[in-house]
From TrEMBL:
Keywords: Lyase, Magnesium, Metal-binding. This is CoA ester lyase. One of its GO terms (biological process) is oxaloacetate metabolic process. Belongs to the HpcH/HpaI aldolase family. The keyword Lyase applies. Substrate binds at R71, E135. Gene3D superfamilies: Phosphoenolpyruvate-binding domains. The lineage of its organism: Bacteria, Pseudomonadati, Pseudomonadota, Alphaproteobacteria, Sphingomonadales. Residues 10-234 form the HpcH/HpaI aldolase/citrate lyase domain.
Length: 294
């Protein structure tokens, strides 16, 4: 079972850490997780102000901290430790680590968090981590190295920073689909998350007005094995939440397959609707029912 499955992780809604209004809107939304951003959404000059605003927001929030996360700056920048020192006394539920280059970055973050948890009287190890694992070219080669990484509950990928990292002028094909390298990043993130036994989280859709494309994309990646998606606008949340729940038809079929194997214990394969299903079908059916809360 994936670590942290008690925490819903379908929709992750970003809000800039220097906007109290947008943080309030994200926290009040139906997003499973609200992420207060101290990285890309905040200019270097505004980072000290944003840190204080995020800390104040966390301090003023009485409950629900488990779904209030903070995206810090990468651990190899001069901002990361200052971000953590500012926000950790506010007890965020988790930290999003951008531009993770590999397992060592998560381990370094774990050391920082342990010290800050101890200082703030927070239960050691309770602050969860999502790592963005494909935002740098070098990171593409380490996506399979995160098994057992401390605190890690989810992995996501990014296409925009990756394009910058490799010097690409575009990351899309003429039809709007991602180019090969970015589809590879998506696949490597999924495989890495499966290897680490954590949730794979799909990257953002920048056009927040195109909800039909969002629905189709979220539905597809959920069927591929993704368990949630990043969002940049509250309008995307309901679509994402719905897409990452199995349909009634999928649930019905999964229940039939589970019941079929339960009625025929010990079989490796069995006939079903004119075809054959085997143990991998059973495993997928059980996973789908778990996702549906069955």
């Amino acid at each position: 079972m994936t670590q942290g499955t008690a925490l819903k992780m379908r929709s992750w809604l970003f809000a800039p850490g220097d906007s109290e209004r947008k943080m309030e809107k994200a926290a009040a939304s139906d997003a499973d997780i609200a992420i207060f951003d101290l990285e890309d959404a905040v200019s270097p000059d505004e980072k000290p102000k944003a840190r204080k605003m995020v800390r104040d927001f966390l301090d003023s929030t009485v409950e629900g901290h488990e779904r209030l996360w903070v995206r810090i700056n990468p651990v190899d920048t001069p901002y990361a430790l200052g971000d953590l020192a500012a926000v950790m006394p506010g007890r965020p539920g988790g930290i999003m680590l951008p531009k993770a280059r590999g397992r060592a970055d998560v381990e370094l973050l774990d050391h920082y968090l342990s010290a800050l948890e101890a200082s703030a009287g927070i239960e050691l190890g309770s602050t969860k981590v999502l790592a963005l694992v494909t935002e740098a070219a070098e990171a593409m080669f380490t996506t399979g190295d995160y098994a057992g990484a401390p605190r890690l509950v989810a992995m996501s990928w990014g296409a925009e920073d990756l394009a910058d990292s490799i010097g690409a002028s575009e990351n899309r094909n003429p039809d709007g689909s991602y180019g090969f390298t970015y589809e590879l990043a998506r696949s490597l993130c999924l495989l890495g998350a499966a290897t680490a036994n954590v949730a794979a989280i799909e990257t953002i859709q920048a056009d927040f007005r195109d909800l039909e494309t969002l629905k189709a994309r979220a539905t597809k990646v959920r069927r591929d094995g993704y368990r949630g998606m990043l969002a940049i606008h509250p309008a995307q949340v309901a679509v994402i939440n719905d897409a990452f729940m199995p349909t009634a038809e999928e649930i019905e079929q999964a229940e039939e397959i589970v019941a079929l194997f339960a009625a025929n214990p010990g079989v490796g394969a069995i006939g079903y609707k004119g075809g054959m299903v085997d143990r991998p079908w059973l495993a997928r059916a059980q996973q789908l029912l778990a996702l549906a809360g069955k």
